[in-house]
Amino acid sequence: MSNKSKGSKAELEFKRILEARGYVVEKTRSGGRYGDKDFFNLFDLFALREDGGLLVQVKSNSTRGMIKKLKLFTKHPKCIKKVLAVRYDRGLLHPSKPVWRELTIEGDETNERQDTDIKD
Question: Does residue 120 form part of some domain?
């Protein structure tokens, strides 16, 4: 499986997770010749709900320096949270199931939520 298809699969999987939580989610469109057209050149998903919204960057197996980049992005209103969602292919408790790790980044603080049994 190529990195691009692996990333697209992770984005669709996390999109379904957010929709199950009551969000309306928009995914970036693939941009043919020039690659993906991320929101603000940084985020893969934009999710809205009555209580606020999320700008989400989805990664597979590694944060790859994204926490620092997300902390530097400050062009969003306070009601929108920045989230880094990382999909690990294998969990320790369930080696055959993926594990999601969510990091919410607000200013210099990073809050973590880890779900081993997130279902679509």
Answer: no
82, part of any domain: yes
Place of tokens 């998903």: 45
pTM strictly above 0.90: no
The domain spanning residue 78 has which CATH number?
A: 3.40.1350
Q: What is the mean pLDDT of residues 108-120?
A: 60
Count of structural domains within the chain:
1
